[in-house]
Amino acid sequence: MPCLMIFSASQYCGFDGTSFNGWQQLSVDRILPGKQGGKYELGNTITACNACNTITSRMTFEPGQYREEIIERKKAHVAERRPFTQE
Ligand SMILES: [Zn+2]
Fold it and tell me: How far, in Å, from the CA of 48 to the mean position of ligand 1?
């Protein structure tokens, strides 16, 4: 169950840096979305707060995009939608 390792290893949202102070806030985001074939595996997951997970859930990506590119696009998308969370 690799997801459990991610849960305990990361204390911050990978997109906006929100720190997790409660289990209910934490979710696992698939970097390449499930509808595009992304799986729940270590190379394709990142911890995210529920808000970021929801905001990024409808994004689509070109096949073969790198993990880092997708994360940067999601970060930018989150920053647009939730500017109040940025410093
Ligand atoms: Zn977040």
Answer: 5
62 Cα to the center of ligand 1, angstroms: 23
Residues with CB under 5 A from ligand 1 (ion): 13, 15-16, 18, 49, 52
CB 79 within 8 A of CB 18: no
Phi, psi at 62, each rounded to 5°:
-65, 145
1-31 pLDDT tens trace: 445 455 545 678 999 988 877 656 778 899 9
**pTM of the complete model:** 0.78
Task: Report how far ligand 1's centroid is from the alpha carbon of 82 (Å).
Answer: 9
Q: Would you identify the CATH topology of the domain 2-85?
A: DNA Binding (I), subunit A (1.10.30)
